[in-house]
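[09:14] KT: can someone run the structure on this one? pasting the chain below
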Amino acid sequence: RICSDAERAAEIKAAIHRNLVWNLYDKGLMSEEGLRQEILPTFDEKDRPHAAWYLDNWLRHYSLMPGMFEIVAELKEKGWPLYILSDFPPCFDVLKERFPELFGLFDGFAVSYECQATKGDKGLFAYLLKKFPLNPAECLFIDDVPKLIDNARSLGFHGIVLENAQSLRERLVQMEIL
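[09:31] RB: done, structure tokens below
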């Protein structure tokens, strides 16, 4: 919103989320202040204000993918148990408060900061299975990162790479889930 070059803004956002310090933040092993202290110096003077703005505002501007609420609501209406498996820092509760209608549809949550592990290192999947009585062979994991789908599949989960709500809907209909 403060960077007039949308492509550059996307690069700054990607650089922040790719930084290994963000991974520690997601695991609850780095404070928000520590995150800022570690990440901001990695940007040049021109980009640093934009990176600082993003770090101050990313959660406030977090938005739902268009069409996803409707899919989740339909899955719930059909009786499917639904769980969130998310790499997210301790501010996850703020997100739940922002979208109570959506989060109210889920049966449970497994979040990286709770167990100091992520989907990328596969530890969050183990945490999910320990926290809830689930059989991976009966679970469908949906994520927008293909490598994370591969991680899930290596642990016995089924997986779909999320591109957008429409393609997800089509795939779920094809699988006779919706």
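[09:33] KT: thanks! The longest strand covers residues 83-86.
[09:34] RB: yep, looked fine to me
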